[in-house]
Specification:
Beta Polymerase, domain 2
Length: about 160
């Protein structure tokens, strides 16, 4: 094989990284994390938190943690997050765990891992306590403004 037959290497920014072959773009990971948080806030999840995990691990960039009120609520949050991240932001979910049990649903998007809990399970595992040294990303600006029409499912504002 001559030098002319050797394929040139792909530019670094186009090479896949991570266990699922996701391309590592920190700004895209933050966009996904914020979009997932916004879905949770728009759809009545409580205690929505985004943790920057980059100082702690190279496996992923962000945790999104939220609490739902029921099995049906957790399922709806999971499905709406998938819709927004896959259909609107063109990302691909690697895996989903806990959907059938519906106490702790984990959506793995490679650089972003979303944890949807019922209240009891969230308190028991205490991920935000375990990772209390991870920087928190402010998502308060993503919450619906009081008096604005609700965009998600759940009780309508009076």
């Amino acid at each position: 094989m001559s030098d002319q037959d050797t394929p040139s290497p792909e530019p670094l920014e186009n090479q896949a990284s991570g266990p699922a072959g996701h391309i590592n773009h920190p700004e895209q990971a933050l966009t996904l994390a914020q979009a997932a948080a916004k879905v949770c806030l728009d759809n009545f999840a409580t205690d929505v938190l985004v943790l920057d995990m980059t100082p702690k691990t190279a496996l992923f960039d962000y945790f999104v943690i939220a609490t739902g009120t029921s099995r049906r609520h957790l399922h709806a949050l999971s499905e709406e997050i998938d819709h927004v991240l896959q259909k609107e932001l063109n990302d691909k979910r690697i895996s989903r765990e806990g959907y059938d049990e519906s106490r702790w649903i984990v959506l793995d998007y490679g650089n972003v891992v979303i944890h949807l809990f019922d209240d009891e399970t969230r308190q028991y595992y205490g991920l935000e306590v375990l990772h209390s040294d991870a920087p928190k990303i402010d998502v308060s600006h993503l919450a619906p403004k009081p008096g604005s029409p609700q965009t998600g499912f759940g009780p309508a504002a009076d």
